[in-house]
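Q: I have two molecules that I believe assemble together. Could you output structure tokens for the complex as a whole instead of separate predictions?
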Amino acid sequence: MHIKTVLKLLFVTLLSTLSKEVSSQSATDFDTYTTLKSSGSLPNDITKLSFEKYKEELAKIQQKDLSRSEKQLEKQFQLDANYAIDRMLLSGRVLYNDPISLYAAKVAKEILKDEPETYNKLRFYSVRFTNVNAFTTANGIIFVNIGLMAQLENEAQLAYILCHEITHYKKQHSLLGFKFEKNLEKKVSKTAYRKNNQDNFLTKCAFNKNQEIEADEEGLRLFKKSGYSLEAIDGVFDVLEFANLPFDEVPFNKRFFEDKLLKFPDDFQLADSLLKPVSEGDDDDDAESTHPSIRKRRKIVSNLLEGIGKKDRKNYIVSKTEFELNRKIARFELLHLYLLNHDYEYALYSAFILSEAGDSNSYYVNKTIVKSLYALTKVYALEGDDGYKTVHTDYEKIEGASGSLYFLIEKMHEEPIAMNILALKRAWKLKDKYPADEEIEKICDELLLTLTKEHKASFSDFEDYSIDEKKDELIEKEKKVEEEETTTKKSKYNKLKKARKETIKKESSGKSYLYAGMAELVKDLEFRKAFKKAENVALSITKKDEDGDKKNKKKKYDGEEEQATSIDKVIISEPFYYKVDLRKKEAFKQEESERALINLDEKISRLSQLAQVDAVRYNSKTFTAADVDVLNNIMLINDYLRDNGQNTESGLIKVDYKGINNLIEKNKTPYLMNMGILYAIEDKDDMGYHYALCVVTAGLYTPFLIYQLMQRNVSTYIMYETIDLRTGKYLYDNTKKINSSDKDYIIEMHLYDMLLQLKHPKK
Amino acid sequence: MKKITIICLLFTAFCKGAWAQVPGFIGKKFSASAGLMFFPAFNATYNNRENILPILGGEISFFGMNWIKNLNLDYAKSRTTTVGLDYQNMRTSDFVVPSTSSSNHKAIRYVHANSVGVNFKIFNEDKGALAPIGNFQKLGLNMLLTRSYDSLDNILKAYPTKNHFLTFTYGFGKRIILYKYFTFTYGVDMTIMLDQSFVTPIDGNDIRRYYDAGFVRTRSMKLINAHASIGYVF
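A: Yes, here they are, computed for all two components at once.
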């Protein structure tokens, strides 16, 4: 064999080994866990345009032997459903070819081993939702929420849920539900004595409940054909009944946050007897619910199972290891999702559960704890009680063991500095362990800044408590010195200094446990330096703020404006284009909107070149199967916007700091533009004025009246905002309302203007 | 010429730069157009000279159209304003110079005029306009140079009466893109012509009569006009 061929083979072998190692590590390494992303080829479901799919469905409807009105209803359903599903598929919430989706597909294949045709029509995608749910579309997509996967106990439970969802698809429940609802509306409008809305609502609920029961019963028939354990079904109803609770019930003790130096007072631990007991979870009265009560469903299914042999059935057929791996992935993923939802307390408790379950050394878990504590600290410090209310749930409302954690947080909130110190301690510890992590370093810096600036803590405060045994002695000594100072020096500045010290002392009384907790860190030279730096930064910010206030006042007086940033390169992610005709019942013109959006992408591409602004375009309407990276970037940006939009006041470090930094580095720009166009046709304004003018001018106004009558009442809105991804700040934000139609040249003219303003902003 | 320069300077000073960067139409800030201004001429319109003769003693009028040829060059100075140069060329139809107590000579004359000047267009951003495209209002200041000729007498034709007038124009219209960078502009112009008799030397009664009749005819022709032009942005 030729030497080059041998070398090539060796190289390929080495590469494949390496890649296998990398992929297996990324799937199983929970220490440095990376959040789920889509991979491989993108499915047709998202590469095909909505109106193309809609037209395919229309062709199918035409072939059906249905009445004209039935066909019309189905067309309407396909129109609504297609676009709604596509919005979901492209929302950045749905994952493709990720381990959970692939695993769900494997389990479904096992269930449908005797019905390969049905299996081939179905697609399984996991969804980054925290709630315990799975849902199905009429065109055969089954979505499995991450929150559901995290709660399941075994593969058989997943199998039963999939059976239930497959039945929804086979029976076309969503289409039937739509038809039922529309027919009900029609009937109501024709009835002379209209029923009230409540009656209609209850009728719809009853119909939906029947569908759910049918899905349970038919799903059970399908399930029975598989080899999965029938006993698992009862567990499914447990999962659903307690879906509001975290994925495990582990008693929380304040010791989790304590170490040899930092000890919380005893009254910070909620007694077990005071924990709110877990309620029954479900109510028998399901009249106003679209789903039957869990109790009813459990009963119906258990009746159907009576007398059936349960032997030789298994909890796992595909793989127990794979189930456990995927459930763990889902649980790890949940931490990230809770942080994105700003549900920091839930994230903390979930991280605590994982810690207790053997992942206490996981960098990812510890980082989640630090991020949660950091976020709570910042929100409390910068947004006060209003911020606290948005991120905290009263412990008395929390059922089960996690109530203790909420109680501890509430106690810490009584001492505003407590959360800051705890967060800083945990963050610094993590920083010591992983010094290369820029994000943790940034968190430490921000926590130190909050400590010095917002809580007015100085290094000496902590030094005083650094030798715990001499604490009282030191306090006494300081008191004496102060008394002497009072008697000897009575200058204005001495008095002021003394007053400040007294305030700090007053504030720190009762906080000795916190100050002492920092003793170890205070001895750390690196920490000392960082603290001093933070003190200086806090001072300079305060000074700048004061100067800024003065300058702002002057600027206002002089009419000056701030220097704007010139942007040469920008990421434009998922622009939108909506065309609506508000005169019609179905106002949204879906096909026209989608076509306009594709044209918009081409326009942005061309005009950005003319305006000499480098535009990186992420547009899901132009996806090909190979665009998985673009999809992942859209997901990252959507997460960022959700994260940023919820909490702009406190300017938190973004949850996916690393991902965003990679995006900035990859695209060589920190600027993101959100933009879109809305074109609306509305009813004409009152023409009375024009008719009156016609009369008054004895008909001379007639040509103008005719012109007015010919005119449509149209408006085009062009909206855009530019965000600095590093800071989350909005640089430019504008909505132009144009009283004109969205002619190509008008849109192009304004897009060019928008891009030009990025490069040459208003001075 | 001095006057025109002053007018240009005045108009340039009027246009303040609202934005550091002017987008124009996708970067194209110049617009050149050629077109026609037109309006029905309600009296004294005799396009066929042969028809003039029978009515020398009568007051018969025929319907006709006034046509003014127009060239325009605009430059987008800001997002909403353009400054432009206008050239107009017009010829009135023949008109009767009525006899007076001092002269009973009824002359048939026409006026040929060239107009140069500047205009200032304000584009309506609310209606989606960005200079030089979209809905606009126009203010113009022009110098109208007229020559009044005798329509019938070839000897007299060699000696036209020259005059110049200052005109102010207010107008409104819309410029749209027809295809790529080709434009179509339409609208209405209203022009007031200032009587320059106080500065024009009057040599004899006939000249005065010709002047007055020419002024009236030209003024009525300029007073209100629709306009339409085809152009190009660059």
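A: One point stands out. The longest helix of chain B spans residues 205-223.
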